[in-house]
Amino acid sequence: MNNKSDEEILELFRDKNTQSQAFSFLVKKYQERLYWQIRKIVLLHDDTDDVLQNTFVKIWKGLQNFRSDSQLFTWIFRIATNEALTFLKDKQKKHLGYANSEVEDMLLANLEADPYFDANKAQLELQKAILKLPEKQRLVFNMKYFDDLKYTEMSEILETSVGALKASYHHAVKKIESFLSLNEV
Questions:
Q1: Which of 49, 50, 149, 159 is deepest in the core (most CB within 10 A)?
Q2: Looking at 72, 96, 118, which one is the last position of a domain?
Q3: Which ranges carry the RNA polymerase sigma factor 70 region 4 type domain (predicted)?
Q4: Measured in Å, how far apart are the chain's first and last C-alpha atoms?
Q5: The dihedral of CA 163, 169, 172, 177: what is its sign?
Q6: How far is Cα 106 from Cα 28, in angstroms, rounded to an integer?
């Protein structure tokens, strides 16, 4: 198993002779976390795989210029999040004639039909509630609730103040509670 630190990986990447090995370490270290981060945004397994692949391509192309202004983890998460959001925006452009609620219904129907989504009724209701949130609140809720990220990490990834993130999370939780109480899960 790879127990290399981010610093060790970056050091290996700077050497042309060990660049591929370093990138392999990076993929092994972050692939699963990035998969789930993307999956919570795009919802479907196949879409997640596509976005994950695009994410690693961007990381490979940009790693040479990584300046260590932030942690490698937050830089990678930002790329994954941006790729997922870009994917969703592109998908919504294809459905321009649809209202937001219709797009949410399509996403939910796709999620329910996804053979990789194995959920009980409560989990499905939670996903329905999360889908009803505005995009930013959905991102913040997923990062805090499912990934247990610190607000400071989220602030670097989303390039937003900690105060705004706390407010978004608070509003998201209230909306989800309200949705779930109305639907009595």
A1: 149
A2: 118
A3: 124-176
A4: 41
A5: negative
A6: 33
CA gap 161, 183 in Å, rounded? 33
pTM of the shown model: 0.72
Cα(162)–Cα(169) distance, integer angstroms = 10
Strands (E), 6-150: none
CA-only gyration radius of the chain, Å: 18
List the CATH number of the domain containing 172.
1.10.10.10
Answer yes or no: are the C-beta atoms of 163 and 171 closer than 8 Å: no
Residue type, 83: E
Is residue 19 within a helix (H) or strand (E), and if so which, with residue range?
helix 19-42
Q: What is the number of domains present in the chain?
A: 2
Q: What are the pLDDT tens digits along the chain (185 aa)?
A: 458 899 999 999 999 999 999 999 999 999 999 999 998 888 888 899 999 999 999 999 999 888 877 789 999 999 999 999 899 888 777 655 444 555 556 566 655 555 555 556 677 788 888 888 888 898 899 889 888 889 999 998 888 999 999 999 999 999 999 988 887 64
